[in-house]
Design brief:
seven-stranded parallel beta sheet; 9 helices; globular
């Protein structure tokens, strides 16, 4: 059963590394959530390692800069791990293979044209502007805000004919913004699978990004990691699959679901409904905001 808590300070003795999701936990895309800064300072003062993990197709350093620019204390962060960084490492270190070889040529789907170029920097990866038989995979790393779920159906139809797989480095189906939710790459990747295409997933809840997290602290037992996230499907399910403790943040992507739940009983009822709908085990703890 999930334990409702008011602050991470009440469970400090149960973990050594706080693995914090970024969007929906630290900030809403524009500003930090109310208690984020003080919570990060509290964890630092108590000697906890802070690792930020994000289903972002971008490299880790760019996300660290974004965290700092949005007003969060970057000096408290031990390391940033993104799904994009995990993918880049697996390609450059030759751990990833598609169709019997390491993929090096990618056709990108992205929010900005510079994003895949920045992602490939420091490697022999080639970014292609044309989808043809020389492309090893489509790199689905980001979407412009306002993208519709069928916005890339023509590209996917061409990829199916060429039997080109999609590598999705952001499995989120939606992401929070200050004014609501926007479609994220995971929604399109699922659409490509339904069309009959092959998708290789990077990011929570899939194993590759958690392997990158564990590699950062090789001497830390899995049950001493605490995953703090707002997505039951991604953050909580992924944490459970690798033996991490988990804290579910209620005021991220599920804020509307909890908008009228004011008592502990009501919060528990909504939480159980969401857990059942997501098909995951209950998280260890539940918290309104990171604090």
């Amino acid at each position: 059963m999930t334990e409702l808590i008011r602050t991470l300070e009440s469970i400090l003795n149960q973990f050594d590394v706080a693995v914090l999701d970024q969007w929906g936990v630290l900030h809403n895309g524009s500003v930090p959530y109310p208690y984020t800064v003080s919570a990060m300072r509290m964890l630092q003062q108590h000697g906890k390692q802070i690792l930020i993990v994000s289903n972002s197709g971008k490299r880790a350093e760019l996300n660290r800069q974004r965290i700092e620019n949005i007003g969060l204390p970057a000096d408290t962060i031990t390391k940033v791990v993104t799904s994009g960084e995990a993918l880049w490492e697996d390609v450059t270190e030759r751990r990833l293979q598609l169709n019997g070889k390491v993929p090096v040529t990618f056709f990108p789907i992205c929010a900005k044209q510079s994003d895949p170029i920045d992602w490939a920097a420091g490697s022999d990866i080639e970014i292609r502007s044309r989808l043809d038989h020389t492309v090893d995979a489509i790199l689905l790393m980001g979407l412009p805000d306002g993208t519709a779920c069928d916005g890339y159906d023509a590209v996917f139809a061409a990829a199916l004919k060429l039997q080109i797989p999609v590598v999705c480095s952001n499995p989120d189906k939606s992401s929070p913004r200050a004014d609501g939710l926007v479609t994220s790459p995971g929604a399109l990747a699922h659409r490509y699978e339904k069309m009959g295409g092959v998708v290789l997933w990077y990011g929570k809840p899939h194993a590759a990004v958690y392997r990158a997290v564990v590699r950062s602290f090789p001497d830390t037992p899995s049950n001493r990691f605490l995953m703090v996230g707002d997505s039951l499907e991604h953050d909580i399910a992924g944490a459970q699959s690798v033996g991490f403790l988990s804290v579910f943040i209620r005021r991220g992507i599920h804020a509307d679901d909890f908008s009228t739940a004011t008592t502990d009983v009501q919060i528990e009822e909504v939480g159980q409904q969401l857990v059942t709908a997501a098909g995951v085990n209950p998280p260890d703890f539940s918290l309104e905001f990171l604090r």
